[in-house]
Amino acid sequence: MFLVKGKKYNAQVRCHSCDSDKSKYIACIGGHDYFICVVCGLIFSDNLSEESFDAMYKHKNETEQELIERFQSKLIVSSKRARYLFGHVTANLNLKVLDVGCGEGSFLFALKEYGIDAYGVESNMIQARYGIAKHQLNILNSYYDKASFERSTFDVITFNRVLEHIPDVHKTLETARYHLKDGGFLFIDVPTYWNKNKVFMKNQWGGGHLRLYDINSLKYLLVERHSFELIHAIPFVDFYGNYKPGCACLVKNKTVRKDSDRLVKKISPFKAFRIKLSIFLGNPVLRVKKILIKLLPQHIIERLKKLR
What we know:
Radius of gyration: 20 Å
Largest sheet: 7 strands, mixed
Shape: globular
CATH superfamily of the largest domain: Vaccinia Virus protein VP39
Order of helices and strands: EEEEEHHEHEHEEHEEHEEHHH
Number of helices: 9
Distance between the termini: 32 Å
Strand content: 15-25%
Structural class: alpha/beta
Number of domains: 2
Helix content: 25-40%
Strand order of the largest sheet: 8-7-6-9-10-13-12
């Protein structure tokens, strides 16, 4: 048991991905404590409340003008993502695609260009109705669960900056497996906490993000915990530009698990230290290193350099 800002934590503070209780406290952001798992490297919050999820997303109110502006803004990002996934398709392959947490449906709209039979599921009624009424999109206004669709319905399922908001990530991924055809593909794009220049991105914390991944912790979740077959791992995706960096994985639905390839090693305690110090100072990592050079012994500095 350990104490953080007056709260007592014990074995119940477990990693959202690997269920390990071996974690280090990082900081309190937005009223919630964040930890880093020393087994898989996931950064996660202590907040897994369904009520908080409903308050932030399901019951969120927006004006029509706000919806229009957000749809147009997200359409730029959605078009980049659709081009990345389906830009190589030269003929109508009769693909059936589901976008989970589709919002107003900008990604579904972008998929029309490729002749794809696109569906979405969105818990927020106002956003779902906008996509249905304004753009004639196939959006189910509901929570995503097994009852949402028939088994083995989709060739591709996507989670575009959604998985980090969902309280029960394991149940959600098993639901996606249920709805995927044998050999179907799952694409997941999530925010990360470093950009490609190794600059710490404080703007990625809070805002309903229950967890922040890097490419290793995302691969661990999908391959080690849920036995998907890794097709392609993208350490940094720039659909949103360098201001909101992310990482992504394309995996394939399969039934046989490969136990031979362990994708994730235990993270160094220095990584947790770097993250914690970056949050405290609110500065990029490069500035933090300058401070460390002045404060730390030479043999520790040499070990930190090897982490880059």
